[in-house]
Structure formats: C-alpha cells, structure tokens
Description:
35% helix, 15 strands, five-stranded parallel β-sheet, CATH 2.40.50.1020
Amino acid sequence: MLRTLIVDDEAPARERLKNLLSQNREINLIGEAEDGIKAIELIEEKKPDLVLLDIQMPRMDGFGVVRMLEKPPLIIFVTAYDEYAIQAFEINALDYLLKPFTKTRLERALERASQELLRKTAFNRNINGLFKTLAEQKYYIDRIAVKSQDRKILVIDVEDIDALITESGRVSILVGDKQYFTNYTLNELQNRLNPKKFFRAHRSAIVNLTKIKEITPWFAGTYKIKLSTGYEVDLSRAKVTELKKIFGW
C-alpha cells in the first residue's frame, strides 16, 4: 500500500481527495496538511511514500515544499492551470493533476506512482530536472522557505533578503541581522530570483540591488559592496562593468 499524504490549502479540495482515495484499496491515507510548513513537518515525521501536493498555496507554494526536503517522497502535483508548470512537469515526466480532475485521472496518477515507487532513482532525477526547467522558463520566486539556526521552518519574502552567500559549501540567506539556511545552490537561486532585483556580485554571493548602500574601490580592480545592514560583499572584477551599467556610475 502507498502511505499517502494530502497537501492543499482548501478544505473542500482535501475532502474531495480523501473521498476519492478512500475508494482505492492500495492507498493508506496517513495525514493531511493545509499549508507548506505543516506539509514539511508531516513529511519529515511520517515519511510517506506519496504526497498529493497542491502548488498554489499562500506563503509557501508546492515547489517550495519540495525544495526544503532533503529526500522528497513520490509526488503528484495538483494544480490549477499554469502553463509554465505543466510544461515543466511534462518535460521531466512528472505526474500532475489539473484541477478539476476526474476519478479516472486520479486513478491513472496513482497507478503510475505505484510503478514509480520501484524506480525511485528516476523520480529523483526528474525532480531535479523540474527545477532546472522552471529556472529556464524564468519562473521567478517571490517567497522562499528557509531553516533557522534552531531548525525551524520559516517563509520569507525575497524582497526582504539582503544577500545570499556560500560559506563552507552551504548556502545561507541574510535578512537583517538574521542568517537562514536553504537547500538551494547559489546557481539555482540566481536562476530563480528576478535579475532585475538580485545581482551575482561574486561566485559566492548574490545581493539585493535595493539593499546596496555603498560601492567602494578595493584593490586590483575589485570593489566592496556595502549593504544597508553594514554587511560587506566582494564585487569581482568580472562583475564591475555589469554593475556599473545597472547603476550608471
């Protein structure tokens, strides 16, 4: 049996899914969540085989949930019409349910999930492909899930971010005097953040352009970027001309 979780912010949608799933003897429904943070907590606690995951949820969308999981289970994405997301699913052979879906369509997705459980390596590869495709489609994020020092899951607006940095191979996000951790790589974040607002200043740092306070000459053609918080980021020589064009200095 597939140990299954439902994640959807709309109670009627969860009830309909529960009713449909109860008619399938191969499904063991082990829980439900109404938002992304609760979903992550339940997935990490219960370790389901399958999650039916809504994409359009307030605060944290379904993609944000997946990105916070170190070892995501099988996922069937549930979505209202979103041409970019649907194209990404199809390119990477990941299943989705387009609302409103029929019982027959749900049964096909569940059958496929049962088969994929035996091919988990392929599923994980396709999940990685999904995020690459979304990045190529310029599917920018406006919120991001992070973990605090005490492992709490928080959702922050990207406009509040001062900088994103890599230290000892780990990516952290700076917001004011706080530092949070994410499972994204810096390259992935560069692709998922709007380039009109975020700038790759160095191979190990991305800065929010609205948070830059000073740009100071350093040495050998490099500069220092000082943010409004006082935090300083190196500006590599290769990026100087690009930043000059942005600010016109």
